[in-house]
Amino acid sequence: MSRTHEVPTTAPNQIARPPLGQILALEELDRDLFLGHSYNDSAFRIYGGQAVGQALVASGRTVSPDRRVHSLHSHFLHPGNPKAPVIYHVDRVRDGGSFTTRNVRATQDGLTIFQLTASYQRRESGLSHQSVETTATPPEELPDFEDSLSPDELRGARPWLDVLRRNIAIEFRFPEEYPRVANARGEARPPCQRAWVRTSEVLDEDPVVQAAGFGYVSDLFLLSSALPPHGITIDEPGLQLASLDHSVWLHSEFRADEWHLYEQEGLWMGGGRGLARGHLFDRAGTLVATTMQEGLLRLRR
């Protein structure tokens, strides 16, 4: 099901989200040099998915349109300042017969805050299978997150939920209880969570922008899937949480502004770090993307 509105609307009791279309519309400064903005003065640091999405757009602007991004690997090096622009420097590493490789370096005030390598491939057909399957209640049949909570749970969730909605342009609905709610009650859960996700506004038809839209979405909730077994949330006093590296494999083309089911699993924690994996499925249960992320999860009582 596609959305037909062109401009996101905000009801009086809702919080306006960042303008993702503008965020992904980079300004070209020179050959292989692009400028990005956050359009958000309320955040303390740049959302990791924004850096992924903008860097992917920068790389895609230097690639032949007959090639599609199939993987990206990135590292978060320093917190970005959302009040300042980011310059994206693209290095044309390789243009082969089937594959194209680009490196992107994001800087602020001369400091490299983020770097990404993206690989593009000429369209090909071949053998196919997937080893994972899933089903879930369709998003239209699920309540908004606020409506799924008790009054006490909503009061506890309101501070972080308002910050999330104010700073990240993603809509989400949970087919089961979000483990963070159980953790807030002091209850442990398995290291798994699922959410239907889509960008909060319709994006440009450009395949690069749609891929970048999922790059933006892919960082949401992922690392926190390692916390449920420990019965704590990211608001736990003394917990330091930050993404260190992030990888995405795009198995087919899809629209990031349409609902997809994002299943996440916290595979491991130790040494102050955690490792999480994500699978993204379309409505038919087809696996369209896979993600992995390692991050800092350091608890100091």
UniProtKB/TrEMBL annotation:
Domain Acyl-CoA thioesterase 2 C-terminal: start-end pairs: 183-296
Bias (Polar residues): 127-137
Domain Acyl-CoA thioesterase-like N-terminal HotDog: 42-120
This protein's UniProt keywords: Hydrolase
Organism domain of life: Bacteria
InterPro entries reported for this sequence: Acyl-CoA_hotdog, Acyl_CoA_thio, HotDog_dom_sf, TesB_ACOT8-like_N, TesB_C
Region of interest called Disordered, as start-end residue ranges on this chain: 125-150
UniProt record, GO biological process: acyl-CoA metabolic process; fatty acid catabolic process
Comp. bias intervals (Acidic residues): 141-150
Listed GO MF terms: fatty acyl-CoA hydrolase activity
Annotated family: Belongs to the C/M/P thioester hydrolase family.
Record-given protein name: Acyl-CoA thioesterase II
Lineage, opening ranks: Bacteria, Bacillati, Actinomycetota, Actinomycetes, Mycobacteriales
